Amino acid sequence: MTKAGGAGRGPAAKRRPPRGPGGRRGLRSRLHGLRGDLPLLVCLTLLTCLLTAVAAGAPPLLDRLAGRAFGDRLVQAQESAPGVTYSVRVDVLQKKGDDPGAYLAADMAAMSESLENWVAPGLPGELRTDSARIVLPGIGTLTEAGPAELSLLHATDAPRKGGYAAGRAPRANARTVEIAVSSATRDRLGLRLGQRLDLGMGGLSGIHATAQVVGVFAADDDSVLWREEPLLAAPLKSTGRPHQAMVLAEPGSIIRLQEQSGIEITAQWGLRLHLTDEEARKHHGADGRRQIERALVVTSELAPDKYCPLATFGGLVCSLGLNPTGGLDYSSRLPDAIGEFGRQWGQGQAVVAFGLATLLIVALAAAFVTALLALRRRLDVHRLQRARGASALGLAAARAGHTLPGALLGLAAGLALAGRVGEGTATGWGAAVALGCWLPLPLVTFFAVRDGALLRADGAARASSIRGRRVVAELALLLLAVAGVWALRSRGTRAQAGPDPLLAAVPALLGLATVVILVRCYPLPVRLLARWSARRRGAVALIALLRAAKEAPARALALLVLVVTLAGAVFGGLIAGTLTEGREEGTRARVGADASYTGVRSNPQAAQELARARGVEHSAQVGELRISARDSARGSAYGTTSLLGVESEALLEVGGESAAARAAAALPDAGGAVPVLAHGGPRVGDRLEAEVGGRTLRMKVTGTLPDAVVDDVALGPLRSAESPELLLFTDLRALRSIEREDFGQLVLLLYGDGIRAEELRAMVPRAAPETNPGELFVLEEELARLSDDGLVGALTLAHTVATGLAVALALLALVLELLLSAPARGRTAARLRTMGLGDRQTAALHLVQLLPLVVAAVVGGTALGLALPSLLGPALDLGEFTGTPGDPGMHADVLLTVALGAGCAGLVAGAVAVETWLGRRRGLGQVLRVGRVDD
């Protein structure tokens, strides 16, 4: 008989299956494993969320920033002048009619509406007419302030009834010419309301009329009219010339005075292109810009045909009101602004792509370090499971399943954050990055527990095989980096929608190549230092340096993180410094002085008045001749040559700092020929000749052109991207026989601390309408525009944010790497502590062991960041931003570079302090005991 309590011990009990993993013990094991994986899940979720948000939200955010910058650029291009200008030459009235001024005013207003409709269907936005104006210039009169020349203006954007401080707007009057003046014109010319002025006392011939002041308006607001017609806001007085002023008049009075003078006048319509934020966002890309450019070309052909459709075939005369006119002329400054933005945006994409690529590389490295740290915690358990029959693939799949919730949660949170940026999030890129964060742990688990990793037989052959594969992989990586740089330099930057894979891959390849070189090279000086330290007392430095050299390959991941982060940050500082300082230098070179005027050839009178303007202390001219030079003795041709000249005496009066002025003043006599300095081509003593204006210009090379002269700011307005290789330089005094019209460029440089831009601009519009008035550049205004460039601000913001996130992730990856390697350092320190090593010596051991890694990373990362612009070549042409041809010169941010290096050193020092403190709190048995399993 069996005992009552022994029923469970019979044969049936032996056949009972053992308790499976689903029991309380299995559940406790799972909960324990999940609790151990909780830090990993939190880190993975946060990392995935951040990278998904960046990858999915960066494209729409950049698209929106670029669209806003594109819209701002168009507004800036149309700030000082209309984006599109139509003009017609208005002849003297030939047929009589009742009130021709009313017909003219009505037709000008009707043309404003018609021009808004005569646009290509594909032109986005709205082309709105800001003004329609007609001017009769230069009518002489006598005021209390002295002689004056008045220009009569009729403008549709003239002040309305509420804009008059006194009186009213001019009306049609058969007996007098009613005019309205600004309050500044009234005060400076001594005018008063109701005063009559005799017209025809100088200026235009044939004028005999009386003008009456009927209104005074205020010009103190920021109106487009005052910016485009500065003489209307305030008169101008220059030495030896009458006062220059512009007044408002009724169109009938303008036509009546035009009949008396018998001259043609010009009617102009100014239109500005207005894009909404959404339209600017859709059309800032290459396709959108081409669409706008094509639509502007079609518009330039459509509007003249609509204005006078049968002028060519039927011989009809076009008319405006009752006045005959010529054809409608079109001009636009928008294509240049659009083309400049396209070139700069193409380079801007390269800058942003490098910032995002740096962030991606550091983030993936952080994900791998996180995976390695998680693997180290569970590696002994995985090996035990493999010994019990589990497969490597099954363990990797189990780890993938454990971390999948964290990856999915991070993906959802990242996409939600990216969705707050705007519509059109790049979900595909976000999912790809989330996959890249989730895969490292299963991959490292599989490769760590596969059969090849567990079996230790034939260790020598396996080590030899690993070294061989490593050498092959490193050589392949170096070849890929060289090939990527070569491909990028050959192709350049290509404006395209979306990320550029080649542009994003090159920094990763260069970073990996730099790490390969550093891992191979920096252990050599470390071993030399170890040999030197072996001759000295104490073993701390020797042990630390030997371990640092031995563990160099194992620290490749930490080195990659530091190198790529430092390179990206240094490169970003280099770009930011170049865009800040280089653009300012480029602007100063483009202007050449405190102000410059490019219309000396076509408007010498305006140039003379600018040189005598109030606030101008010194002025000088610089010029360029484009010639086809040839050797006088041999007859060999040098091709297109640029002959630059300066007024040396005038430039030396400015202060004697101009290298070009000193070089021109020191030119020797050439025996009747023009003495020149040559850059490239002819040698000293050679005689050259060229045909200029039907005459032979003979030159003699008396010296070599120094680089300081070529780079002189005074010659900046003459330099261009198409400058020929052969440059010649001389004094303009030697070119007195050359007619002004034969010069390719003649620029007037103006110097003075009291230069006032509004007064200078008031002189330029007085040029004859049929001539090119030239452009006036004021340095103060040009420098002020730099801070308003939305494109550079958007690029700087995007790269700064990407670099900041990369630095934060690099710190995380470095901390995790230090945690990963801390047990090995702790065991070494514990063994040495058993032999009497103190706390200070332990801290020194840790510090010296990590110091070579930091020094190698700082040197390699800084060198790579500084070398990136040269390696990329034409793929990164910052001259598009600085406005200077060729290399604008790089400006490194020394403070940022020093701060990054000091930050790395400080982080390592802090880690050493924490590690030393933790080692002192732990007992030696806890570190050195055998058989402990890390859960």
UniProtKB/TrEMBL annotation:
Keywords: Membrane, Transmembrane, Transmembrane helix. It comes from the Bacteria. The chain crosses the membrane at residues 351-375, 396-417, 429-450, 471-489, 501-522, 556-579, 801-822, 843-868, 894-914. This is ABC transporter permease. Residues 1-28 are annotated as: Disordered. The lineage of its organism: Bacteria, Bacillati, Actinomycetota, Actinomycetes, Kitasatosporales. The keyword Transmembrane applies. It comes from Streptomyces polyasparticus.
